[in-house]
Design brief:
The protein contains 15 helices and 17 strands. With 511 residues, it is an alpha/beta fold.
Amino acid sequence: MSPHAVTHISGDDHADSGWESETTDPGAAAYSNTMASRSCLQRYSNDEVHDLVVIGFGPASLAIAAALHDALEDSTPRLKTQQPKVRFLERQRHFAWHPGMLLPGAKMQITFIKDLATLRNPRSEFTFLNYLHQKGRLSHFANLSTFLPQRIEYEDYMRWAAARFQDVVDYNTSVQSVNVGETDSMTGAVECFQVVSSNQATGQSVTLRAKHVVIAAGGNPNIPKGLPSSHPRIIHSSQYATSLPDIFPSGTQPRSVAVIGAGQSAAEIFNNIPSRFPGAKAHLLIRGAALRPSDDSPFVNEIFDPERVDDVYSQHPELRQKQIALDRATNYSVVRLELLEHIYETMYSYRLQYEDEEQWPQRIWNHRNVTGISDVEINGQPAVQLQIQNNAGDYYARKGSKVEILEADLVVVASGYRRDAHEDMLRDLRHLMPGGDADGKRWSVKRDYSVEFADGAIQPSSSVWLQGCNEQTHGLADSLLSILANRAGEMVGSIFGQKSLRKAGSAVKGH
């Protein structure tokens, strides 16, 4: 995970109606017991033409729900309707934010001020501080003297907020496609879209009509080429905490675990293995020379400020991509300095305890690239064998690359996410692209996150919007938590406001 994201581990993200208050304050308990049933958003029949259908109910969608609720309460911005017809569709069975990375002691990488609402409206009831107040922990949290809550607490905060909207969220629902609904009889312009989904438990298909569709589906685990995408002993980092009980039932544990990756998630898992599986050996395979720290210094952090999106979007595509490449060290393949120092101190202690590095409980294999994997058995138990290319300088200089073998009972791949789910969902609308459908052509978005359609293809009162997959046009913060509150306010203003908060602008190519 990055210093600015708590991975949209998805982004990309769902409400558990069975949550319980942990507070000892009777007033706060009474509030939380009624909170789930009270919301400004009401559910409407499937037959109604909805104003908005949102695909995915992670942090981005939750922030939109909170912003719309706040706007209905205080009339800022002034809305076209006080009874918006809104529905959220979520494939998970309940709200869960990166459950596979909720590791003991893991902290957030961004300040709690960048929560669902504070930067948009500090007086909103959906702020993290109000959550602490309602839970009866505000003064205790203040005593911690930190801006970085534990990740498990932040996930509970989002579940607490998500419970407010359970009446308008369809969980366990998988969206198949977005296609044309009704069209203008004179011009043929699309007046509304159809969102086709199915209940994953019953298989029942549901079609909702909506003037606006927001796709905020989060990221899908990215498994590098050369590694099997489905293997009982190879998992993505997003599955780490949730898959282990099935892979290693009570009373069993791996003897050796290989972690592939050099970012925050990889480092956290590598650090967690000794406490989760005492006696197991942990191997961290990285391509570079060393784990590197994330740059979260104040001036660099300004690239994640909400107002920087305008600057990024307005740049020439070539210049923008160069700048994003320079800024990647803030978010990709980097580790929080505090964790790096802890791991280094642990490795140093091994130097005092063991004469041979191969005896260490944890080892970092640098300059390594996994080139192949095969199934093996070790003492009658299934395992995998990794073929590893050693590109360390001394080997390369003397005799080229060296191939090594590593046997492991579990391989964890911390290789990030693909954020292209919208491409498949919008496949039935490709004929509405500017210039028509074309092989390999990707959707472009305007500054306000609305998809660019061909002129006259859709009515001005309708559109499709993309969230969390616009890094190449809107900057590194697009898939992170930093801009959620402000972006949600913009979305509500663009879709429901009497006047748009900003000009949409033309779409920028270079996706």
